[in-house]
Specification:
heterodimer, A: mainly alpha, 2 strands, B: about 170 residues, alpha/beta, 5-stranded parallel sheet, 7 strands
Chain lengths: ~210, ~170
């Protein structure tokens, strides 16, 4: 936790307090997902039909907020970015895992975060996806040794775009923000076209519940 | 304030923060670090700076908690074969990487020179639980240490402590 959230070091050096803080951040994340209507499987599936791009907009907004926040907090000297954990790149397992994740998302209409949110709000399908997720993790652990070469394939270390492209961090921030804004504009345009004639399209009136 | 107008303002704020970012400089607090050379010299004299192939093999076999083995060679060299369980990292990535205080980091390269340099980087960054593999991958293979992804290598016997000691005596280190 000290590594993932070095901001807490000064105020919460104790690991137990850090874990409580992690729980609070996780709960806030779930609450934000629910407020955005992402507890609804219909809303998530609409992403793949290009009729409601809320998932894209919420997730890309989160990326931009986190990126701008960490960049400017680092620049202001509040956050030590060198202590923020950067997940390592393992091409083999991450490509395989990404494909399984995408297929599971399309089939179940849930991703890990939204399934937890759905289960917490009493939706049975969310609970089913959570159980499937835990079962999958268990099976992956059981067959770890035979799949070891896949798990260890394509290790590239902790890659970041600035280090990979040899460009300043700020230039990457600029490009990502530009892509996000262009993406939001395109998403609204697509949704506008798809929602013509549907007065309720794109609105979350009841937390996205069907 | 209506929804669309709030979203427009947020988008404008993000655009402004993003547009200024390329001119703001590096967000990292400091890319230089202080070095206690006397402490490092002491660690080298006590041979606390490295592990032998036999010691690393025992740590891997015992699944030492918090152990991270870092391969500092190129991606192609790593893909051609590496110590089982190792992760690859460039020297630049390593210099910026974050390690938990309870993690034990073992660094290795082909012969050991880059790993020894990387050990100094980690010490300068304050991570004292770092070691380099003495003799690098050469000595590891010479001692018959298990490597991945070649399946046959995994069945080789673990390095013999006696063999490593004999080699150390031969080298006078």
């Amino acid at each position: 936790m000290a590594m993932s959230a070095p901001l807490l070091d000064a105020i919460a050096p104790d690991a137990a307090i850090s874990l409580v803080a992690a729980l609070a951040v996780g709960a806030a994340f779930g609450w934000a997902l629910e407020c955005a209507g992402l507890g609804s499987a219909r809303k998530l599936i609409a992403q793949f039909a290009l009729t409601d791009l809320t998932v894209f907009k919420v997730m890309f907004s989160a990326v931009v907020v986190a990126m701008l926040g960490s960049f400017w907090l680092g620049r202001a000297g509040v956050l030590d970015l060198s202590r923020v954990y950067v997940p390592e790149t393992w091409l083999g397992p991450q490509i395989g895992g990404g494909l399984i994740f995408g297929a599971g998302f399309a089939i179940a209409g849930r991703c890990p975060g939204t399934s937890c949110v759905a289960a917490a709000t009493g939706r049975g399908d969310g609970l089913a996806v959570m159980l499937g997720m835990l079962g999958g993790a268990f099976v992956a652990g059981v067959v770890f040794d035979p799949l070891r070469s896949l798990y260890e394939g394509g290790a590239r270390g902790a890659l970041t775009w600035p280090a990979l492209l040899h460009v300043p961090y700020g230039a990457v921030v600029f490009v990502v923000v530009a892509l996000a804004l262009a993406g939001f504009y395109a998403a609204e345009t697509i949704e506008g076209g798809a929602g013509e004639g549907d007065p309720h399209h794109g609105r979350v009136t009841n937390g996205g519940r069907p | 304030m209506t929804g669309p107008s709030l979203r427009r303002r947020l988008a404008q704020a993000a655009a402004l923060a993003g547009a200024v970012a390329p001119f703001a400089g590096s967000p990292y607090l400091a890319e230089s670090a202080a070095l206690d050379v006397v402490r490092l010299a002491g660690a080298v004299e006590r041979e606390d700076d490295h592990v032998t192939a036999a010691e690393l093999s025992a740590w891997l076999r015992d699944r030492k908690p918090g152990l991270r083995v870092i391969d500092l060679r190129s991606a192609d060299e790593f893909d051609a074969g590496h110590i089982a369980g190792a992760e690859r990292m460039s020297l630049t990535s390593l210099a910026r990487a974050a390690f938990r205080p309870d993690e034990t980091v073992v660094l290795y390269s082909e012969g050991g020179a880059h790993a020894a340099q990387a050990w100094v980087f980690l010490q300068a960054r304050g991570h004292e639980r770092a070691f380099f593999l003495r003799g690098g991958l050469h000595e590891w293979i010479e001692d018959g240490g298990p490597a991945a992804p070649t399946p046959g290598d995994a069945k080789k016997p673990a390095p013999s402590p006696d063999g490593a000691a004999a080699r150390a005596r031969r080298r006078g280190c």
